[in-house]
């Protein structure tokens, strides 16, 4: 298989703004519901990191109104769009799994459907890094897999766009979070068509 990270980058680069058009036809309201759960717990002017920010809509646009926001995405094309869409926020094109950030830098970190674009063998290390980047009592909000699966889709969103995913099941993610030191605040199934994902809201309490 081609390098999975190249598949993800090239897929999102190729889709460009058409990814947003697809998103608008799904269920954008639930993103705001999830983000509201986080923002109600964050202090004023909190530092928030999003891993896999895409073009900045709706997450960066929503959060940057009240918080110091940094968005990371592997796709330079999506980052360019994000800077246009949300000029008040900060964005960087980078591989989230190789980021080097200071410990205790953020009150909140978000990864909505993005961890599952990282090869599974790298996800535990990334979850540990997220824990270190959070300040004490900081929060991590994410949507990950419900069932274990790794693979690609040849015509994702539009013909010719290849995309890669790698995910554990919900129980495995919960065990990883707890072993890392997180406390589970909320876990629930997110139905999507005939399958779905898992929403986790956890806190660094150790």
Automatic annotation (TrEMBL):
Keyword set, alphabetical order? Methyltransferase, Transferase
What are the GO MF terms of this UniProt record? methyltransferase activity
Instruction: Give GO terms for biological process.
Output: methylation
Name the InterPro entries for this protein.
SAM-dependent_MTases_sf
Which Pfam family is one of this chain's hits? Methyltransf_23
Keyword Transferase attributed: yes
Look up keyword Kinase and say if it applies: no
Query: What protein am I looking at?
Result: Class I SAM-dependent methyltransferase
Cross-referenced Gene3D superfamilies? Vaccinia Virus protein VP39
Cite the SUPFAM superfamilies for this sequence.
S-adenosyl-L-methionine-dependent methyltransferases (SSF53335)
Q: Which CDD domains match?
A: AdoMet_MTases (cd02440)
């Amino acid at each position: 298989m081609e390098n999975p990270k190249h598949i993800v980058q090239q897929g999102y680069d190729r889709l460009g703004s058409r990814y947003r058009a697809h998103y608008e036809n799904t269920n954008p309201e639930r993103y705001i519901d999830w983000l509201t759960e986080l923002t109600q717990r964050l202090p004023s002017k909190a530092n928030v990191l999003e891993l896999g920010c895409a073009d900045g809509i709706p997450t960066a646009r929503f959060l940057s109104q009240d918080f110091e926001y940094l968005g990371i995405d592997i796709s330079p094309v999506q980052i360019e769009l994000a800077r246009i869409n949300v000029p008040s926020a900060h964005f960087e094109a980078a591989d989230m799994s190789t980021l080097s950030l200071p410990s205790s830098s953020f009150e909140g970190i978000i990864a909505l459907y993005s961890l599952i674009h990282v090869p599974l063998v790298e996800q535990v290390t990334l979850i540990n890094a997220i824990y270190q980047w959070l300040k004490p009592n900081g929060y991590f909000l994410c949507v990950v897999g419900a069932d274990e699966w790794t693979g690609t889709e040849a015509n994702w969103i539009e013909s010719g766009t290849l995309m890669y995913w790698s995910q554990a099941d919900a129980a495995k993610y919960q065990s990883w979070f707890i072993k890392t030191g997180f406390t589970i605040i909320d876990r629930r199934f997110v139905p999507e068509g005939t399958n779905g994902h898992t929403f986790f809201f956890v806190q660094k309490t150790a």
